[in-house]
Amino acid sequence: MRRLLSLHAFLVYLFLYLPILVIAALSFNESRRGVRFTGFTLDWYRALFQDPRVLEYFLNTLVVAFTSTLVSTVLGTLLALGLVRYRFLGRGFLTYLLYIPVVVPDVVMGVSLLLLFAFARELLGFPRLSLLTVILGHITFQMAFVTLVVRSRLLLLDPALEEAARDLGARGLQTFLYVTLPLAWPGVAAGALLALTLSLDDFVVTFFTAGPGATTLPLYIYSSVKLGVSPKVHALSTLLVGFSAFFLALGYALSRRRL
Q: Are 61 and 200 in contact (CB under 8 A)?
């Protein structure tokens, strides 16, 4: 039975990650077309970094990812603190609402944000679709993930530590900065890294909320694939997967740290 379960696990992981490994292998393939490996080369990575459009889209991706991650981490941490440390009417309902951005289909989220921005533009004079709308769209789903991760960390903290700090004369902000935040920091960092990974990989929400001049790397990969799969696309996809895997592993390591 144990061998069957091990074989099953191996086949599942092979099914999940074999396509990614194939893309990574093809990014080093000398052949421009097809999947036959004719030789090892780094020319596609060199061509990628020499393309000014890719550098522009890479910069857009970083601006969107880091800006939205910073805002969602601050807002998500404060929301998690309020949900854990304070009792108020509707707290359970708000906690339930946090799961909606996590489980709702990305297409529904993207269309909803597009309609919201169009409505805001008609009535309030909101700017056209741009990097700003992409950032706001990413914050809407990132904040839910950050809040859930930080909330799970705060639930593990002993409230007596904060009470002891207040008994010793620490005020609310001092207690948060010198007691709560250092203890919850692994959860905050893990939530931020998870949000950053989600933003780097997001395509659907970005597709619906991006305007002219707001192209990111996932959008560029999609448009390039429609014209034919190039080894440059393989190289770019491999780099994106590498960045995402690194930040995800770092976030998991931080979330596993003990109190």
A: yes
Token code pair at residue 257: 């740290």
Total-model pTM: 0.81
CA pair distance 10, 5, nearest whole angstrom: 9
Handedness of CA 72, 78, 84, 89 (dihedral sign): negative
Cα separation, 6 vs 73, in Å, equals 38
Gap between the Cα atoms of 202 and 194, Å rounded: 12
Burial class for 210, CB neighbours closer than 10 Å (0-12, 13-18, 19+)? buried
Cβ(187)–Cβ(152) below 8 Å: yes
**pLDDT < 50 positions in the chain:** 259
Give CA–CA dist 219/217, Å, rounded: 5
Looking at residue 221, its pLDDT comes to 81
